[in-house]
Amino acid sequence: MNQIGTLQRPGETRWSSHLNSITSLLKMYNATSAVLKNLKNTASNYSQRGDAHNAYNRLRSFEFIFILHVMKEVLGITDNLCQALQRRSQDILNAMSLVLKTKDLIQKLRDDGWNELLKNMISFCETSELDFPDMNAQYIVGCSRNKKEDVTVEHHYRVDVFFATIDTQLQELKSRFNENVFELLTFTKTLDPKEFFKLFDIEKICILVNKFYPEDFSQQEKECLLYELKHYELDVCKHPDLRKISTLSELCRGLVESRKLVMYPLVDRLIRLILTLPASTTSSERAFSAMKIVKTRLHSKIEDDFLKSSLVMYIEKEIAENFDINEIIDDFSKVNDQRVQFK
């Protein structure tokens, strides 16, 4: 990772792609309906006519339109967060703030969004010449004419679809960004060198170690860390060269190059632990995507070490592009005598 909170895959997410598709379909709904209506009567064979007929009926159903509008509202709220978490240099504190705002907006949609959604649905149905169902009528399942006892049309769409969809999104956000994650990421920002170590806080750093890394530091090291941090604050945080850097990874390299690593080994260890944090599932998703490409059917017997090395090279393409092949060959040749001479 380039810095804590930095995500590895920039660009448009699949969520934005879904949102754009839904928005486009709603805008082109009448045109799409007209094309399908024409195809179900004029297609060249029965199979195509049948497919067009089924697609037309599904497209013109109230349930299909309702679900599209619900998805548009939910994805519209979460799209900004999805985009932010994909940026290469997203600030963690701003990202966490955006998570909280997204939760609030989704909760507000659940509490107050139903009437507005119905209003939009009525307007859309009138524009597209669709029948709006009686919300007080008894809900009938599909075309089977089976009725759900004591379930009205409004209850079905409000509880079984609208509330259920929103509750799933809220639960997903709460599970991925729980209180422990918020606290951990907030504490890790205290070591971030951005803006001249503006967020540096010795007390929070000590809490970070005691609460989240109790097994990585002995009790004696925890006591020594407090005094090491005091020296670190006056030395590294004021160092003219180290004050210019803006990411934890650069800070880690800077400590090595300036040999401050020898003076602050405990701080360096903590920084390296923080740099291994998976701030998002994005890195894991990229690893699994790469595994599908690297470990193919022909490579099914590849050993773990070789697979791991291959995945690192594939995932970190930007770093690998800077490698000099001739230097690699020279280093490999020096390890031991080879049967085949590379040069």
From TrEMBL:
SUPFAM superfamilies: Ribonuclease H-like (SSF53098). It comes from the Eukaryota. This is HAT C-terminal dimerisation domain-containing protein. InterPro entries: AtLOH3-like (IPR055298), HATC_C_dom (IPR008906), RNaseH-like_sf (IPR012337). Residues 263-318 form the HAT C-terminal dimerisation domain. PANTHER family: GENERAL TRANSCRIPTION FACTOR 2-RELATED ZINC FINGER PROTEIN, ZINC FINGER, MYM DOMAIN CONTAINING 1. It comes from Gossypium hirsutum.
